[in-house]
Amino acid sequence: MRPSQIVIHVGTPPEHSPRSSSDFEEIQYPVNQSPSWSTRSAREEELPLHYMSEETARRRVLRGPSGNGTHQEPSHAPEKEYEIYDDEGKDVYAKMKDMRSPLGSGRLRRPPPPPPTTVSEFFQQNLEHIPPIAYTLLSCWTRFHRIGHSPLVIWDEAHFGNASLLSGYDGHFDFTSGASYSDNVPYVAMRVMLATFGVALVPLAWYTAVELGMSWRACHLAAIMVLLDVGWLCISRFILLDSMLLFFTFSTVFCLAKFHNQQYQSFSFDWWLWLAMTGASIGCVTSVKWVGMFVTALVGLYTIEDLWEKFGDLRMTTREQMRHWGARITCLITLPLVLYMAFFKIHFMILNHSGPDDAKMSSLFQANLIGNTFSQNPLNMGWAGGLLHSHVQTYPVARGYNPEGPIRFLADGDVIRFQHVATKRNLHSHPIPAPVSKLNNEVAGYGDDKIGDFQDYWVVEVQGPCGQIHSLTTRLRLRHQALGCYLRAGNEILPQWGFKQIEVSCDKENNPSDIYTYWNVETHINERLPPGNAQFYKTSFMRDFWHLNVAMMTTNNALIPDPDKEDILASKPLDWPFLRLGLRMCGWGANQSKYYLLGTPVIWWGSTLSLFVAVAALGIYMIRKQRKYVDMEPREWDHMVYVGKVAVVGWALHFVPFLIMGRVTYLHHYLPTLYFAVLTSAHVLDHFVFTTRRLSERTKWIVFAVIVTAIVGTFWWFRGVAFGIDDAINDHWGLKWRSTWNMYEE
Predict the structure, then answer these.
(1) pLDDT digits (tens, 9 = 90+) for 255-306
(2) How many Å apart are CA 58 and CA 54, to the nearest integer?
(3) Radius of gyration of the chain (CA)
(4) HSE-up (13 A, CA, CB side) for residue 674
(5) What CA–CA distance (Å, rounded) separates 587 from 236?
(6) CATH of region 376-528
(7) Are the C-beta atoms of residues 277 and 334 closer than 8 Å to each other?
(8) Residues near 271 by Cβ (< 8 Å), separated by ≥ 6?
């Protein structure tokens, strides 16, 4: 039985023909409609994507494009232009891209102002530069105040003072730690030159915060923290490389942020400029110290992520992809490497005189130094007083022939015996484990020129063409005739009873690739042979460059904690974030100026706490985002993640490597890491306080004023540890905020 029919009247038919399927595929975007963040009240909530009853549990952050949390009136902007890309069905979730919208992170783009026609307009357009100028002037006062007060060599000025050619230093002062500077040493000018890099840290911090898209309060806070940290201040006032390292670390982050903000106009002049400037900063920071490799890693991770995102952009042609890859390789790899090598070339050209550290370089390099006599050695190696040694320690003299007879030249396969000049002992090895490298045989002095045995003889093995053996240029290996082991001097250090010298042992393994078994003759004394010619001892730049970098790495790895003595200056990486230990930078006598490397506690403790807050907040936001809670605008989320990656990941890249290093560490190693903690603290306060709509402007001002007051007050309380304390340290009460600080005489 058919059901009864029901007629429903739906109105008159439309005048136009029915819509086609293409009509339904078009999305009609509203024209001249203000965005949702400006039309919705500050407390209005938005339903999640699926129905959810816990509406009160959700938090909606409403923020305008200015990023400062202030409400803006609806603007009647023209309709946005959208680019519709046909990906041939490759991405069913493809969205229209707003081609005129700003980047999802970084500083918002603003159209350039018109050229000023009056002085008043010029000042109005540049008001934003007044705060960094004021902070820079204050930085000049803090860095230069009483900079020449102490006429003594302070801490590591003993190591880096010799590299001050630009200040007029003539190279005739030894820079012994604690010694008084002589009148011909312009130590004040040298300190001022290095302190200038410390001055520049403050404006760099300001403009980096600006480029990262922080609010004006957060920019002020970042600059104030850099200005008033007594740790950065103290390290910048002496002849040390740390101020240069900090400057180029800051500049690398700044240039990276500038480049990020040019990504919307790839291959423009500004895009190329800041990409090249980032590469130049990388070359400079790694040339100062290898700690600069950590900020280089940050740029590398950013570049990998950037290229990966571009790889997934189906609108890019293969040619565009290759251009982006080529630009990064040129500016971020080739340019830094060229700069790094150029600085070494300049280094070799300036430091061309012989000195106490010559032994760290190759024999051929030493032969070309002014004041070195290696080039005067007879070219051919005759049986006579030849001094055979490794690159770091002198070894015995070879003897055992008739000096009145015909000259015999040393050849491959000769069996020789070495005798120490001072003790007359023979170079001897026997099947007893070496004191440090237990797998090798011990090498020691035994007997004399009349007493010896079969274990005193060594066989010469020439590495390379077995022609005439020459001083300096011929590489030898010395094989023990009886045991078959090879004389070796590696990186093993003897204990205190061995005066911390390099251990010499006899390696049982025949490993021709082991460079520590290679020897050459540096000093060859034979009056019957003509002196050599310097032209025979020329060396290439690439060889010297490689050798010096290997020597630097070897020396750095050898800086391990000494178990035989307590180093009151050293500290562990986990001591740094909460400022558990400070560092005495000089003698602690009552009649001399005393400097104590210590950070401003409020800055160090607060920035460390902000790291935990940032990581926890990111985790909570990600969990809520997965559950479809809407906590913030898409651009705010992108900005928070971007700044968090620069600051938190940058901190981790600088801090974690020290946890796995075996070398001895000091408090100043944390100073580059501290910068990223400071950026994190400014970002966290910016997100939760300065730009939130939950707090009133009055509350934001109060929080800002309290933080700045705490920083300024703490800095003023501890200023003496950076400017110098002249009288007895125990007379200055209230400085020991932690029981582990060793500034007082107990």
Answers:
(1) 999 999 999 899 999 999 999 999 999 999 999 999 999 999 999 999 999 9
(2) 7
(3) 34
(4) 29
(5) 19
(6) 2.80.10.50
(7) no
(8) 259, 262, 263, 265
